Amino acid sequence: MNKYGFIAVDIDGTLLDDNDHFDIKRFNKDIALLQQAGYHFIIASGNSYDALTTIFRPCPLVKEFVAENGGRIVIDQKSIYNRTHSKKTLHQVLSFINEKLPKPDILSLSGESQTIIANQYRDVPVPYYPHHTYFTSLEEINEPIYNLNVGWAKQKMPQEAIQDYVQQLNRYCSAIQATYSGAYGIDILPAGVNKARGLKELVEKYLNGTLAQVVAFGDTSNDIEMLTEAGCGIAMKNATSDLLKVADKVTVNDNNHDGLLTEIEQLFLS
Predict the structure, then answer these.
(1) What distance in Å separates the CA atoms of residue 217 and residue 222, rounded to the nearest whole number?
(2) Whether the Cβ atoms of residue 104 and residue 188 lie closer than 8 Å to each other
(3) Candidate CATH numbers 3.40.50.1820, 3.60.15.10, 3.30.1240.10, 3.30.360.10; the one for domain 87-190
(4) Residue 188 above 80 pLDDT?
């Protein structure tokens, strides 16, 4: 693995187990060793930067983030790249969801400083949104919006149905890129936004590297571009079938058995 200088990892279903936990002590030890060996360790996630800073508060060595599925890049707490939705697009997409799709169990907007949840879901527990508020009308929102997320977790909507909703959304509006996010949800991003493009922006413009030097790890559909375009794309054992088809390699263990850290240790630290 000497030809690679960058390791990009997804979070949900990759680093985190199904209970949203990871071995922090082992993780911090591995990151320290990787950085000593000259590797850049990059978080590439569909989560908001707000959520990521909460997850990695006990991990001070993690400083490079591709958040919002590539729509926001942060290095050492400084935002260097942002792609956001227009209000016009948000109005169009919300109308389509309300008129054409089954009622979601949650609908939220990922903003610059917090998650903004549709007021009708005020009673839904949202422990995964560290800072959040509620909206009734888009006119109440005065910050940039990176991502519109809808989910059907309570209904346990079949993945095939959700993938169909993704296709409907992408056919309906050319200004967006909808993608299955795992956990019964859809991320609706500005057109052209994905993890591969965000990673390319970070690595080539700011870290003096190329995507060919990246080893990327992921578990679901929003990781497809990243694993396809990276020098080496590694899918988790628990990955969705569409991601397994494009991966160069598959981890021996799944996310509930430290599959990511075990693979990193074997490839880079043994």
Answers:
(1) 12
(2) no
(3) 3.30.1240.10
(4) yes
